Amino acid sequence: EGITFKMVKVNPRVFFDVEIGGLPIGRIVFELFNDLCPQTSENFRALCTGELGLGKTTAKPLHYKGIIFHRVVKDFMIQGGDFSGGNGTGGESIYGGTFSDENFTLKHDKPFLLSMANRGKDTNGSQFFITTQPAPHLDNVHVVFGEVVSGQDCVLHIEGLPVDRMSRPLQDVKVVHCGELVLKAKSKDETRSSKKSQVFRFNFRLRQEIV
Question: Which of the residues are catalytic?
Answer without folding.
Answer: 71, 76, 79, 118, 129, 138, 142
